[in-house]
Write a structure and sequence with these properties.
alpha/beta
Length: 257
């Protein structure tokens, strides 16, 4: 069942078409990889879902709620959280304080008082919410909770950012290039972490990532963008051997690997 539906999404910046009639669904409990070359429009999709950008046309709905009618600060209230390409932590705060910010963004979001289904979902979310310290422990960060976020190695800062997103108690998490700058060992840990989010926390994952080994290894389905248009959507194996994808981005080596 589709939890997030993107239909006919188009976004222009002046004369540049960043997205052209992009449509895809993310099913509840799924890990969907969103891939494509630099400039393909992947982060623009995230920014439209998060309401950082206004779409020129199209539709985005999540659990029956029209996201295009919401202000950006309302998005977390319906159950969507995200991370960013460049780690955006409050580096003057401790690890725990950063995670508490994520929890506050969820509880203080307002929640569209006029929509009964959203109110009901809010009550359900409150019942399943996890305390910040439990999240830190689950991520192996509990011993670091009182340390300044700015002093942590880059890989741990990325994990703190994920903890902050999870503290918002999302049903869908948008991960924007979480593997960037990580070591090989950290990549393996990240793959396990994303799979555990889905398995243990029952969080749906939409993943933008350039690391093909990670995407193909953990995604249930993969959606491919090129020059702002969708060119493929299917299982990793289907996408791996799709001629349009091979030509546009991935290269013959992936099809043979």
């Amino acid at each position: 069942m589709a939890q997030l539906s993107v239909g006919g999404l188009t976004k222009r910046f002046g004369g540049i078409v960043a997205l052209q009639d992009v449509s895809f669904d993310v099913n509840e409990g799924e890990i969907l990889g969103l891939i494509g070359p630099n400039g393909a429009g992947k982060t623009t999709v995230f920014n439209c879902i998060s309401r950082f950008y206004d779409a020129d046309s199209g539709a985005i709905s999540f659990a029956g709620v029209n996201l295009l009618r919401l202000a950006p600060h309302r998005i977390v209230g319906v159950g969507i959280a995200r991370t960013f390409q460049n780690v955006l932590l409050f580096k003057g705060m401790t690890v725990l304080e950063n995670v508490l910010v994520g929890q506050h963004s969820r509880t203080g979001s307002g929640l569209l008082g006029g929509l009964l289904p959203v109110r009901r979902r809010a009550r359900e979310d409150a019942e399943r919410a996890r305390p910040p310290l439990e999240i830190l422990d689950w991520l192996g960060l509990a011993d670091l909770r009182d340390l300044p976020a700015a002093g942590l190695p880059f890989g741990l800062q990325k994990r703190v950012e994920i903890a902050r997103a999870l503290a918002a108690n999302p049903r869908l998490i948008l991960l924007d290039e979480p593997a960037g700058g990580l070591s090989h060992e950290e990549l393996a840990d990240l793959a396990s972490l994303i799979q555990a989010m889905r398995r243990d926390l029952e969080v749906t994952v939409l993943l933008v990532e350039h690391n093909m080994e990670l995407v193909m290894g953990i995604s249930d389905r993969v959606c491919v963008l090129n020059f702002g248009s969708k060119i493929a959507d299917g299982t990793p194996e289907q996408v791996r051997h799709n001629p349009a994808v091979i030509e546009a981005y991935l290269g013959q080596a992936l099809a043979e690997g």
